[in-house]
Amino acid sequence: MQVLKIVLEGVTTSFRYPHFMLGTQPSFPLPPPATIYGHVCSALGEWIEPDGLTFAYHFTAAGEGQDLEHIHVLSASSGKLPGGERKALEGNINPFRRHILLFPQLTLYLNRPDWIDAFRRPRYPVILGRSQDLACYTRIEVVELKQTAQAYFEHTLLPYAMATQVPAGVVALMPRWIDYRDRRPVFARYLLLQQRVTTDQMLRFGDQTPLFWSDPTAPSMGGLPLGLWFHTFVGANDEALAMA
Questions:
Q1: Quick one: which of 215, 198, 64 has its CA closest to 147?
Q2: CB half-sphere exposure, 170, CA atoms < 13 A
């Protein structure tokens, strides 16, 4: 299978938990699918229909830290300004600490190799996470993936259903996709895998031996290629997308 492979590097990024509003802003350790969707749309310059689009990625950061920021919380006002004019809004400054990831690197795989020119000349500034997290593409190419029964997975998302099969990872509820026409997010559970796990360490049920997509151009570990699990943005959860 031919896919578009994009390597992105930056200085900082942060993937905020959508349900934290005040006091602190923790970051997911891996980018949510909704972040990937927004990034792809930014490169293409338009909101694209997510149907049929699949992605896989490998994400790392060299470190992490905290930044002190503040937000203005506004509300309608019934008071008046010193000149006697009615105030429309009033508010307070609320400081909070934001968890940031340092020197992130994202290797993104898309099942749209025909979009290579769009990423070579992105329509909008390249960012990952917040609008101030500027980044750049250091490698853009079309690669031919291989199928293999043995591979290693790390620093990536796996389907929630694999939580019973993989001896590592943390389950998290993440934004899967945001429909910007009505601004309604869709959430799904994923297995966030940061440490390395080989297919030999995964539990298997039944006699079937699944095949996984792998990237022959990525570094191999212990003779095993890097495994990729492709996800969708809409429709039914795709626990079997990466299997033959």
A1: 215
A2: 9
